[in-house]
Every structure is written in structure tokens, then in C-alpha cells.
């Protein structure tokens, strides 16, 4: 195998051993399967090079690498900040976070002028729910069946999948999960009073790339507004042009009070998330900024990247539409070609889900794809679905190559996965 080095093998073996002993044996096992004994070593654009010298196409990374790996503008911004002031005193004013907040608000047309920066998606889900409860003085929150909003306790209360809630139900209070097909669901709940917020993903990511019906969301927004309930669009996965629009909710004309971004917001280089919201929702934090704060919130290294990331995403927006069209073509007929294992193909833009006949079939395909040179992401809320998340920097040739690998891997799965688990 070209580029294989003995040092690479030794490092990989040591990494798996350390993973097993100090992190999780399961992470070591799945990582070992996916990398065929090698570990990730370096990356650029939509390609990752492993310790055995192989290079794989990255259409996964859990939606973080929308701009690919090591986007030059993002890397340069980090380097500049590293050489000036990477850490904030948190007593003096931090101009880097201030500029990032102004850029982000401007990116959405200043409809949502107030900003809070976190590191992970769950951080801003937490603050959104906290603000909605404090600003309304109400306790109840509405989320959606199939929705995923993170795993910290506050965010987990909104996450629907029982996989992550088991054993913790007593801590996950005052959240009702709505039927996403019921336009009257919000009205029924708000009529009873005490509802602070309704939170939804316009396109559910971890549930397998499931777009929610815009007309249902429109009705929910109207009913929430009439009852003083805040509407929060969690676009941590589907926003920032992953599904075409800067904000899916705002592009669909939904009058939301808050939009949440994360994952690719730090350019795929640093962890960064953000809540954008109205003055009314932000009022408790405007009155007391220490009501919700974190040592590394608004970190200069991550915030320095943001003003570079947004124009980079915009520059690629038209190309993203072309890639989306190519994906339509590549995935067209997949179900008909593989009726034994493929049940459905879903999604929008550069967020696509292929639903298989069983979790075993899906898991098998993920591993087969990785071995054949294509990284994809499984779905945290729906183990039968495999997600394709091509970066905006991928090319028509990358999509064609991915489609080819996909077809072959599914063909092998059809022959290999035992009939019982193939459904
Ligand atoms: C829509 C959505 N919200 C929130 C989160 C939680 O983000 P994080 O894992 O960064 O905390 C995720 C993560 O997948 C997500 O997809």
C-alpha cells in the first residue's frame, strides 16, 4: 500500500490501545473497523489521509466540515489570532467576539440582533431554553418527535430518541414531544398555558435527514406567537447552506424568535456555536450577562474564524446548489437498484439520508464504505439511516466517485447481510 510506514502502524496500534484503556473500547472497535487498522492522520478539503497512507473521501464528519478540512481562510484566521491574543481576559472587552456577533447577525439580515456564543450545539440549546423560560416565567417546552438537540441534560430533555434518555427520565422534565405531522399540536399545548418555547429542526438531521412540513411549522409559529410562546429553530445541522439556505426557517418565511447554529460555524477548524435571537427573548441576558456564561464562551480563536467562514460559505452557495442537483441524480433509482436493502432516500441540499432495512444493514454499509474509501455518518437517532454530508468544497468528480463506491458497497451488502437482518 503506497505511503505505508512502520511508524504509522506503531502509532495506530498505540492509539487503539489508549482508546480502549482510557476512552471507550467500543470507540476503539468501530474506529479500527472503519480504518482497517489505521487512524486518521491529516486532512485537506474533502479528503482524509490515514496512517497507512490511504486517502478517503469525507462525506461524514457529522456535518462539521461543510467547508472541508483546513479551509485556508479559516486556518489563516486562527494563525493570526494565535499570534496576537488567543485568550480573552474576560474583564476587558473582547473585540473579536463583538465583531463575530455583528457579522453573524448581519448574515441573517439583522432580523435577530442578539447573539450568545457557545462551543457545542448543546450549549446554545441550553441557553435558548433557559432564556425562553426566564423571559416568559413559564416552565414547559415543546419539542418534536424524532428531534435531536444534544445530550447535556437540558438539551437531552428536548432530544427525542430513547437511546439517550434511558436511565435519565426523571431529570428530563417539562418537555412534550409533538407529532410533526399535526398542525394543531402547538395550539393544543399552548392553550393549556405555561409553554415557554417550541423548538424544532426544520430538517431533522440525526433522525435521518427528515424535512418537516413547512405548512405545519407555519401553523405552529402562528399559534405560538398568539400565546406569547417563543419559537426556536435549531439549525445546528441544517443551517448555513447545508440545506441550501442561510437559515431554512427564515428562508421559508417562518417568524422564529431564535435560530441556533453550530457544527460548521467554526469553519470546521474550531468548536463554535451561536444563538441568535430577538431583543425580547434575550432580555434576561441583556440585564445580567452573567446569568449564563462559560469560561470559554466567545473564545477569540473560534470567533476570529467566523468573519472568514460566512463569506467562504456564501462564495460556494451556488456551487452547493449544483452539488445538490448532482446528488439528486446520483441517488435517483438507488432504491429500485437495491430493493433488498434500501428502503428510502431522503433529505435536502447536502444533507441526505439513505434508510436501510435494518440497523445491521446500515452499520454494515457504513463500515464497507469506509473500507472502500468513503466516510459517511450514521444517524444518532435512527440507526437504520446512513447520512451523506458532502462538503461545499467537493467537486462533481467527488460526487460521482462517492456514488460509485456507494452503489458497489450496497450491492455487496445486499449479498452479504443475512436475510433476517436485511428485513
Ligand atoms: C440539530 C442539532 N442540534 C443540536 C446538536 C448538538 O450539538 P453538539 O453535539 O455539538 O452538542 C446536534 C448534533 O448533532 C444537532 O444535529
Q: What is the CATH level 1 assignment of the largest domain? A: Alpha Beta
Bound molecules: pyridoxal-5'-phosphate
| Structural domain count | 2
CATH topology of the largest domain: Aspartate Aminotransferase, domain 2
Rough outline:
globular
Give me the count of strands.
17
- By secondary-structure content and strand pairing, the structural class works out as alpha/beta
Distance between the termini: 37 Å
CATH homologous superfamily (4th level) name of the largest domain: Type I PLP-dependent aspartate aminotransferase-like (Major domain)
Largest sheet: 7 strands, mixed
- Note poorly predicted spans: none
Q: Per CATH, which architecture of the largest domain?
A: 3-Layer(aba) Sandwich
What strand order characterises the main sheet? 4-12-11-10-7-5-6
Give the oligomer, counting copies of the same chain as homo and different chains as hetero.
Answer: single chain
Share in β-strands: 15-25%
Overall mean pLDDT stands at 95
How many H/I helices?
A: 16
Estimate the helix proportion, in percent: 40-55%
Detailed description of the structure:
With 423 residues, the chain is of the alpha/beta class. It folds into two domains: 6-67 and 316-416, Aspartate Aminotransferase, domain 1; 72-315, 3-Layer(aba) Sandwich (Aspartate Aminotransferase, domain 2). It is built from 16 helices and 17 strands. The protein has helices at residues 6-23, 25-35, 72-82, 95-107, 121-136, 153-156, 162-165, 185-191, 214-226, 248-251, 279-287, 300-315, 317-331, 334-337, 359-372, 396-416; strands spanning 40-44, 47-50, 55-58, 114-118, 140-144, 175-178, 195-200, 203-204, 210-211, 230-234, 258-261, 273-277, 342-348, 351-356, 374-375, 377-378, 385-388. The mean pLDDT is 95.
